[in-house]
Amino acid sequence: MWTAAGYTQPRIDKAGQALVQEDGSVAEGHRDRELAILAAHFPPAPLGTYNPSEGGRAFELVDAHLVGSLLAKATNTPAPGDDRISADIVKVFWQWDRQRLTQLVRACIRLGHHPQLWKTAKGIIIPKPGKPDYSRVRAYRVISLLDVVSKLVERTAAPLITDHLERKQGLHDGQFRCRKRRPCIDAVAVLMNRTQQAWNRKQVAGALFMDVKSAFNNVSKTHLGKRMEALAIEPDLIRWTVSFITDRHIKLVLDGKTGEASPVDTGIPQGSPAAPILFVTYLSGIFDEVEAAAPGVHGLSFVDDISWWAEGADDSEVAARLEAAATASLRWAANNGVDVDHGKTEAVMFHRKKTAPTAKVKVGTSSIAFNKEATRWLGVWLDSQLTLKDHHATRLKQGHKATARLKRLTGQMGLSPANCRKVMTACVQSVAMFGLELWWKGDQVRGTIGQAEELQLLVNQEARATTGCFQTTNLGALSMESGLRAVTRQLENRQRRFGLRLLSLPEGDQAREVVGARTPIGRRLTNALAHRGPTESTVLLEKPETLDAELLQGEEAEAKAEAEKVRPGLTMFTDGSRLDDGAVGYAVVWKNPSGLSWKGVKAHMGGNQEAYDAECAALARALEEAASRNTTPERVTIFSDAQAAIKRMASDEPGPGQKYALQARRHIAALRKARPGITIEIRWCPAHKGVAGQ
User: Fold this and answer.
1) Looking at residue 314, what DSSP letter applies?
2) What is the C-alpha to C-alpha distance for residues 422 and 480, in angstroms, rounded to an integer?
3) What is the pLDDT of residues 360-411, one digit of tens each?
4) Which of 314, 345, 352, 516 is most exposed, with the fewest beta carbons within 10 Å of its own?
5) pLDDT of res. 43
6) In angstroms, what CA-CA distances link 655 with 265, 358, 446, 541, 648?
7) CB neighbours of 275 closer than 8 A, spacing ≥ 6?
8) Which stretches of the chain score pLDDT less than 70?
9) What residue ranges in 192-294 does DSSP mark as E strands?
């Protein structure tokens, strides 16, 4: 299905294309074009040396559970690296000898060493879509195909670095992407909320958008190592990182021919699982320095797209602050081996007046005027009054183009209606409705009625293409048969889910503070949630807390047999539910020491919660009851029919149910303090299978 959808995309075939280099010279021969691409995308490393220190304990976190979970997430479809070993082959080997693979990954981190055998990548040259001139060498990007076993080590190092930086708050709060719970739409919401707050203070605001040139390929291992050390990352991870990006080679694949291995002195392989977090770490130093040099300026970034935001009494004051930010940015970039793409630098002024600003922002030797038209940033077209009408019109046009293109897959000899619906939802609605959470005001509200009707017409076209119905088909029957929901319901649901996700962020996160803010976007999200009661607060702990208990989730028949066994110690059963009227509660039961009768506790949790919350609360309460007994049992076994709740207990990260996961850890610590050798198991058992106690 997705292969067929890919066939409808226009292909860019530039085989044999002569390339114009940055100095204006033309490369025509195969070897000349190869050298031109190497020179443009892999510049020489800046001067400087860095010797990482010894020691480090990050390797202690590498175990079979971590490596196995990361390997399971690897897809089998990506092309293999130079060794031609695919991910599914490594997964088969994992089933045979997981201990050896775990030891290999652990040793690489402990020694701070990435084997030279894995440092040669195949460089696939891909044209960048939407470029006006494909004779320019910069109109292409190079994606590295790496060996799967090498990527397994990189997949392991990446979350270790990310977890350290998140818990220690090493990254700037305005850095989005490459981090959990920080998509691009959150960055736009923060910018809009901040601007509307400035309007409430009778101020105007502006933003300067800058782009890092050849972001991943320009990373210096010297500056990266020093930055990681400044952020107190474990030395073994720093040594591995420096080893990973040192003495690398690449074999460019040009016109279907694989060239000879060429040395690469700098950069992070674009295609490596560790590349995004390493680049974000590399760039993190610019924000504090610029904000200190230019008071009143706030930074936001999405990988290599950097935005500087400032407010002032008029456009001249805003331009002066943004100019100071630009000067500090270029100074930091020059000192850290970063190159800014001046051709992509833009400025936009946000104000309620319709008069165009006259001030300009000086960036280096150029003067950047504030855009009169809507400015595209992170996929959202921002106009000066933040109405997002241009964004809606552009996205709607893209949706119609996608519908027209995908209609070729429908019809009597095309995809089945079910697959057509999936394609339309994934390839059309995701394009046309991107960013609607930012502008939707609600059903039958002035200002969005016409936009909702335009989107509904698009959905009607999708429904006709999916079902093959006539133009005169009743819309109610058409919607029912196609399975595509009405637009207003989709818009309300997407905005509500967006608000709920923001509320699940840790306390103090600036994106979380958008909900409930006294701004138009804050009020829209609050109204979408239609909730006035308390919400669960989450935190990101500086030091991770592990769950010192065994979590077991087997097959249904095996789990049922385990639940029916007679076990020593204390065996408990938990369950949570939510009634149709919204009431939520849970119960925990266990047998008396005599084994002749049951005892238990139950609790009503009120409304505005889900059955998931009740299941998590039941597990925490069961551990609390076990820890409060006069005599600590030798073994505690807890059965639950909620696999999601059991999985939640394994993580202390922010999100729904976090407070119950933290409570469970405290009760387990109390049990182990009272009886160090105690065995604690949390097991899944199937519901409604006749298990006594369930």
Assistant:
1) S
2) 15
3) 999 988 999 999 999 999 999 999 999 999 999 999 999 998 888 887 777 6
4) 352
5) 81
6) 41, 46, 35, 12, 9
7) 216, 268, 269
8) 1-15, 411-413, 531-533, 593-595, 693-694
9) 204-211, 248-254, 257-258, 262-264
Based on C-alpha coordinates, what's the Rg of the chain? 28
Instruction: Kindly give the interhelix angle for 148-167 and 98-111, rounded to the nearest 10 degrees.
Output: 60
Scored b (16 or more CB within 10 A) or e, 191-207 reads bbbbbbbbbeeebbbbb
In angstroms, the CA 453 to CA 434 distance is 16
**CA–CA distance from 525 to each of 9, 439, 494 (Å)?**
35, 10, 11
Q: Report yes or no: 134 and 66 within 8 Å, Cβ to Cβ.
A: no
What is the pLDDT, as a whole number, of residue 595?
A: 67
Residue 209, classed as helix, strand or coil, is: strand
Place of tokens 């510049």: 43
Instruction: Give the tokens for residue 672.
Output: 């182990």
- Tokens 């009227």 belong to residue: 581
* Helix, strand or coil, per DSSP, at residue 677: coil
> What ranges make up the beta strands (E) of 150-284?
175-176, 204-211, 248-254, 257-258, 262-264
Task: Burial-class residue 168 by CB neighbours within 10 Å (0-12, 13-18, 19+).
Answer: middle
Q: Which pLDDT score, from 0 to 100, does residue 561 have?
A: 87
Go through 585-610 and write b for each residue having 16 or more CB atoms within 10 A of its CB, e for each that does not.
Answer: bbbbbbbeeeeeeeeeeeeebeeebe
Q: How far is CA 282 from CA 174, 215, 285, 336, 361, in A?
A: 15, 10, 7, 9, 26
Q: N- to C-terminal Cα distance for the chain?
A: 42
Structure-token pair, residue 82: 């130079």
pLDDT tens string 481-518: 888 888 888 999 999 999 989 988 888 889 999 998 99
Q: Which three-class secondary structure state does DSSP give residue 676?
A: coil
> What gap in Å lies between CA 322 and CA 400, rounded to an integer?
38
